[in-house]
Specification:
Helix content: 25-40%
Distance between the termini: 34 Å
Bound molecules: ligand T4K
Order of helices and strands: EHHEHEHEHEHEEEEEHHHEEHHEHHEHH
Structural class: alpha/beta
Length: about 400
């Protein structure tokens, strides 16, 4: 345990962890079961194109979420693109900037302008009160993102969408296994999109799914994910290749069997972080509503530099030196990345809460690759750095300037 400043690796101490500790280390279920399923796939010689495991995965997901239709895709980004196209969105769509870049890119890829709306800083999600201010005659939809698996204010967004005749959809990439007022996320808006990327709570290596209760929309998306083919030799829509492979579905099915275990590991880690972080001035841990179903996949802390005196970026550097690869999701905000920063150079003036949060937030490692013994060691690094905040900051600042000069 590191109690003294000189013990910190950034000041010459030995790194706490010999191997890198990642945010987003994949949850891997029962390997033997996975090998069995993969053997089946190979024996069947049916590797993709709506194979039996994809169909089973879709059935199980729809049942789990309580929706009529689930369309598995090769990843969530393509799932979003297909949904956006199938809904006929055009012109402008309101989205938060505090999200992974894929949310905005899925729109821009189809030449639809993502109009970035600020967030409610208490919940990190799109602020419905600000949505209305961003609407123009070109607006065709609102895309909420359930950041960290915590639901958006779906009721208010639905009310605005209905009143203004807009389509409402959700990027639920983080929210598989989470509920809102007792109803599973996946059942809100016109449709929702999950990600089963390796780093997600449930993974299928790469993968995603669009879920909806709308029969017509579902039928359209099924065609669109398979080039628009309505049968042999007959494409009836413009389509793309959004198919999930059988091996991915096998991984997803395997993960579903271990879901309770994944939640319980994440929940225990979350509680342990909460205990360990308690009382560190200027550090607040994002909390989950335990009366809802939650995947506890993200351990998110906010750093109030006025109190800690160490900035979020300095803390990140300190942790990286200890081999803890904490991440600044979603710094700097989509509006500060290309092409959006060139298109809308002043967008930040309308996104004050996004900008503040993007400068404060740090995501810490969790999941089944993080052991109970790791968390106290990791938090001790933070505690030691902040206990000596002013000194740490002054020691790191000149280094920052020297590095900047070297660049
Ligand atoms: N919407 C939202 C709100 C999202 O967060 C995302 C994806 C999407 C849409 C799009 O979903 P997909 O199209 O990907 O299905 C990572 C993930 O790649 C990305 O899926 C995820 N969000 C985002 C939040 O995180 P990066 O660029 O940070 O990935 P990377 O390569 O830096 O990996 C993150 C950490 O995970 C690293 O420390 C290494 C570790 N890792 C990663 C992989 C792939 C592993 O330990 N093993 C692995 O196999 O985006």
């Amino acid at each position: 345990m590191k109690n003294r400043l000189e013990d910190l690796a950034i000041f010459g101490g030995i790194p706490t962890f010999t191997e890198k500790v990642h945010v987003g280390r994949p949850n891997i279920g029962n390997r033997e079961r996975l090998h069995e399923l993969i053997d089946d796939v190979l024996d069947r010689r049916w590797l993709t194109n709506n194979g039996p495991y994809v169909q089973e995965f879709e059935r199980r997901l729809a049942e789990f979420i309580g929706v009529k239709h689930c369309i598995a895709t090769c990843n969530a980004t393509i799932g979003l693109e297909i949904l956006i196209r199938a809904l006929g969105l055009k012109g402008e769509v309101i989205v938060p900037s505090f999200t992974f870049i894929a949310t905005a890119h899925a729109l821009q890829w189809q030449e639809i302008t993502p109009v970035f709306c600020d967030i409610d800083p208490k919940v990190h999600n799109i602020d419905p009160e600000r949505v209305e201010r961003m609407l123009t005659p070109r607006t065709t939809g609102i895309m909420g993102v359930h950041v960290w698996g915590r639901a958006c204010d779906v009721e208010t967004l639905a009310e605005i969408a209905a009143r203004r005749n807009l389509k409402l959809l959700f990027d639920a990439a983080h929210a598989f296994g989470c509920s809102h007022k007792g109803k599973m996320i996946g059942g809100f808006g016109e449709a929702e999109v999950f990600s089963f990327h390796a780093t997600k709570f449930l993974n299928s290596f790469e993968g995603g799914a669009v879920v909806t209760d709308n029969d017509e929309l579902a039928a359209k998306m099924r065609l669109m994910k398979n080039f628009g083919f309505a049968g042999y030799d007959n494409a009836i829509y413009i389509g793309t290749n959004g198919k999930m492979s059988e091996v991915s579905a096998a991984m997803g099915l395997c993960g579903l069997e271990s879901l309770d275990e994944f939640v319980s590991v994440n929940y225990e880690n979350y509680k342990q972080y909460r205990r360990e972080l308690k009382g560190i001035p200027g550090i607040s841990l994002l909390s989950y509503d335990e009366s809802e179903k939650c995947n506890y996949q993200y351990i998110v802390v906010e750093i109030d530099e006025a109190v800690t005196q160490v900035s979020r970026d300095q803390l990140k550097e300190i942790l990286w030196a200890e081999n803890v690869l904490a991440r600044r999701y979603f710094y700097p905000g989509c509006h500060r990345m290309e092409p959006y920063r060139s298109y809308f150079p002043h967008a930040g003036t309308l996104l004050p809460e996004t900008e503040k949060l993007a400068a404060r937030v740090l995501v810490l490692p969790t999941g089944s690759a993080v052991g109970a013994q790791d968390i106290p060691k990791l938090v001790r690094i933070i505690r030691t750095a902040i206990a000596n905040g002013a000194l740490v900051s002054s020691k790191l600042k000149p280094r920052g300037r020297a590095e900047a000069r070297a660049r």
